[in-house]
Amino acid sequence: MEPVQPVELRDGDLLLRPWTPDDVDAVFRECQDEEIQRWTRVPSPYRRSDAEEFVLANPDRWKAGQPSFAVVEADTGRLIGSFGVVEVSEDGGAEVGYWVSASARGRGVATTATKLVAGWLFDLGLPRVSWHAAVGNLPSRRVAESAGFVIEGIAREGLVLRGERVDAWVGSLLPADLDRVRQGTKRPNDFLTGWPTTPVELRSERLLLRTSRESDAPALLSYAHDPVASIWDPEDTPDFEAAKERARRRADWSGGNGAVWVIVDPEDTQILGGIQLFDVARKSLHATVGYGLMPDARGRGYASEALRMVSDWAFSTTSLQRIMLMHAIENSASCGVALAAGYAIEGATRQSYRFGDGELHDEHLHARLRDDPVPVPS
Question: Across-strand partners of 274?
Fold first, then answer.
């Protein structure tokens, strides 16, 4: 990308402008935020000298064809974010990065800024804008997809954060993608409708299915170390901090490719287990379901009831046509749950999954279709 003359971009009360020396204090203050330090490439700990170096190098970035903007409230001038081109590829494309102040999150700031800058870059003649973020950074992914980015996959160890290589989601935005977002049309091959981006509660006489909370961490940790669960539903949850992180991630449905519920009693006084839809195929309209119960909740029909609740919700609310379920053939309890919830056995897959005992097991493949008869609880 050739050197670029500094410009200002505006959408309503949002202004993107070049950085000035007066921004140093605000940048230093905002970059103390734990989420910014966790998910972006800013130094950690973040010192005032880091803010000075970043802000004062702004003219050099524009000359190098890597424009960088301060995102501010147009009427007050208050800094609420950062947006910039962080890398230019040999094919003429550009990778963008951003962060938003904690006080401004949830207002669409990053999505608006992304569309503004992407449109400007396309007007300059760039053919493609790319984005990537560490797997698990769902807020960043939500922004990218809202702006029209198509998620292309996972780059294994494709990002370096704090000196550690981590897996990264990779996405791209073409001019046609941005046009579709501006016009409010869907991207090609996206046929799924009705999928929520915020958690939905489900309730029956015996069960409440609710979103995950950090306070669920002790139960998650206990489940991960249960002898039965550690074999048939192994989870990488070695300690309490990992359990808290797992609970936090499960509460975010914004990625559009999964939904997780905690199964509790109607008064929400006891955690009974969990159930999730994952691997949502937006073109083929199918998903996979998985579930697990705490030891003292097993054998009471909770899992099959929760499975019926989630399946009925998915088929009545979204355009999903098929939900699949797989379990080790030796796991007869899970087989009983699936059959009781109307999931017919379609066959067996040989040595298809390595379970917690370290061995590859054959699995039963079950599925329920939208038009299948609704099972009657026994």
Answer: 262, 292
DSSP states of 208-239 as a string?
EEE---GGGHHHHHHHHT-HHHHHHS-----S
Give the span between the Cα atoms of 89 and 334, in whole angstroms. Answer: 49
Is 168 within 8 Å of 158 (Cβ atoms)? yes
Asked whether the bond before 45 is cis by omega within 30 degrees of 0, the reply is: yes
Specify the amino acid at residue 19: W
Query: For residue 190, what are its two tokens?
Result: 């996206």
Alpha carbon 213 to its chain centroid, in Å, reads: 16
What CA–CA distance (Å, rounded) separates 7 from 122?
15
Q: What is the pLDDT of residues 267-304, one digit of tens each?
A: 999 999 999 999 888 888 999 999 999 999 999 999 99
Question: In this structure, are residues 309 and 207 in contact, taking their beta carbons and an 8 Å threshold?
Answer: yes
User: Whole-prediction pTM value?
Assistant: 0.56
Residue 34, burial from CB neighbour count under 10 angstroms (0-12, 13-18, 19+): exposed
Q: Residues 18-30: what's their mean pLDDT?
A: 96
DSSP state of 183: H
Inter-CA distances, 342 with 110, 161, 210, 301, 334, Å: 43, 45, 23, 14, 13
Residue 138: in which H helix or E strand, if any? helix 138-146
